[in-house]
Structures are given as C-alpha cells and as structure tokens.
TrEMBL record:
It comes from Salinirubellus salinus. Residues 14-97 form the HVO-A0261-like N-terminal domain. Residues 134-263 form the Methanogenesis regulatory protein FilR1 middle domain. It comes from the Archaea. This is MarR family transcriptional regulator. Pfam families: FilR1_middle, HVO_A0261_N.
Length: 274
C-alpha cells in the first residue's frame, strides 16, 4: 500500500507504465472486457501475433486483470475492467492534447465536466494572417444559416455586419436567440444609439437577453448544435482562432454551462435599450 505522504503511488505508476509501453497490451485488455474470447478470435480481432498474444495473456493473468475460463477462453476480471475504464480516458485526453496543439489552451477549465477527450474531433480554425476579422466573418456566415443562436460572452458583437445580419434574421422571425452577457456589457451596448435601437427591436421580437453581474470565464457561441470557442487571450496565441465542435457531449456541456450562468442572471427587458 502506498504511503500517505506520497501523492503518486509507485506501484500504480508501474501499472500505468506497463500498459503505456505497449499498444497491444491495451488492445487485448480492452477486447477482453467485451466478454470471453478464444485465442484465435483475439488474434483475428486485434492482429496480435500468436507469440505476443500468449505472452501478454500470461502477463495480464498474473496481474489479476484477466482470467482463463474452463473452456479455454479468456475474459477480463472485474479488476481488469476497472483498469480499462480508468486508463482509456487518460489516453484519449492525451490524444486530444496532441491533436489540438496550442488550441487546447483555448478551452476553459469547466471542460473538465465533459472530459477533454470529447474535443478529440474538434476542428481548430487558426487565425488568418493579416485578416484580424476572419473570426467575425465566420460568425456572419453561420448566423445567416442558423435557426437558433445562443451565447455566453463578455464580448460585444465583433463586427458591424454580424450585428446587422443577426438583427435582420431576428426581426424576420428566422432566428431564435438567447444571450447571457457579462455585467457591464448590456450598458455598453445600450450606450450606442444604433446598437441600442437594434437591441430594443431584437428583444421586442423575442430575443432573450440576460445580464450576469459577475465574471464570465469564457466565450461560447452555439449555432444550432455547433459549438464555437474563440481564443480571445493573446497570451494563449494569436486572437481570432477558434475551436469548432459538433460533438453531442460538447454540445451538452456548452448548453449546461450557458444555462448555469443564465439561471444566476437577470433577464433584461426591452426598455433597457429604449
């Protein structure tokens, strides 16, 4: 048993190292969690050679992660199943770190609720050289075809054309929209006569605006079921880049996050922009 004063248990790290040194070990143990399998079927499904297969099965059995049944088939023990469930998310998360590169910094800490691996297939849109408004143009393109738009943000609409197109779509009844703004942003928008007019009309036509009097740690844009997360921090790379994901788990996480801040916010009436 690990000493309490050591936060990292050496035997546990040895188990991690044992699995991580061989993809075949992980592949076989994962396959055996699906139920009893013969050696022949394991060879066919995993592509592991006969000699390597026999050696790894013996190793996994000695560790108590696999057992051989009376009919000669192999299956993961309950311990082995726990090992797989604990190990695979770590591998998937590290795969995500590699695939996203520096863009992994653009994700807010709250992604822990969904797990980093959910962003494994996210698309990284890096800023276009000498085009500081490339992200804003992306928003315009998406708002033109979306039927529902939701955002959690401390940013004012980044481009005049985006604000105009969004307002037109709201006014024409083609866009359902909801905004959760950080404190002070509502007053900023209401302080400009042209913006104030558009927002007053938008709210009158059904747009829902909330004021959250506190810190909002990130910016999320949801176009229907597509999640966009922009980088707005120059310390994390050139601004204007963003992550895009259509993953259901990412969408669920983003929706929950927006709703959590919305539930703690105050709804803004149209008169605020009068």
């Amino acid at each position: 048993m690990c000493a309490e004063r050591h936060p990292l248990c050496e035997p546990a790290l040895e188990d991690v190292a044992y699995l991580s040194r061989s993809a075949n070990r992980v592949r076989l143990l994962r396959a055996l969690t699906d139920g009893p399998v013969s050696r022949r079927r394991l060879m066919e499904s995993t592509g592991v050679s006969r000699t390597t297969l026999g050696r790894i099965l013996n190793e996994l059995t000695d560790r108590g992660w696999v057992e051989r049944e009376t009919d000669g088939r192999y299956v993961a023990t309950t311990t082995g199943e726990h090992v797989v469930r604990a190990f695979l998310p770590t591998v998937e998360a590290l795969e995500t770190v590699r695939s996203l590169g520096e863009a992994v910094q653009w994700l807010p800490p709250s992604v822990d609720a969904v797990g980093l691996a959910a962003f494994r297939d996210a698309t990284v849109h890096r800023p276009v050289a000498n085009e500081p408004l490339s992200f804003a143009r992306e928003l315009v393109d998406r708002i033109e075809s979306a039927t529902r738009f939701r955002t959690l943000t401390y940013l004012a609409p980044p481009m005049h054309s985006f604000a105009v197109v969004m307002h037109e779509r709201i006014r024409d009844g083609g866009l359902e929209s909801e905004f959760v703004f950080a404190g002070g942003l509502v007053e900023h928008l209401a302080g400009d006569p042209e913006r104030r007019r558009r927002w007053h009309e938008s709210v009158a036509f059904g747009t829902v605006v909330y004021r959250y009097d506190g810190h909002i740690p990130c910016n999320l844009f949801l176009f229907d079921r597509t999640v966009l997360i922009p980088n707005t921090d120059p310390d994390k790379g050139p601004t204007g880049g963003f992550l895009e994901s259509d993953d259901d788990d990412v969408y669920g996480w983003a929706t929950d996050l927006i709703e959590r801040y919305r539930d703690a916010a105050e709804r803004v009436p149209a008169e605020t922009f009068a």
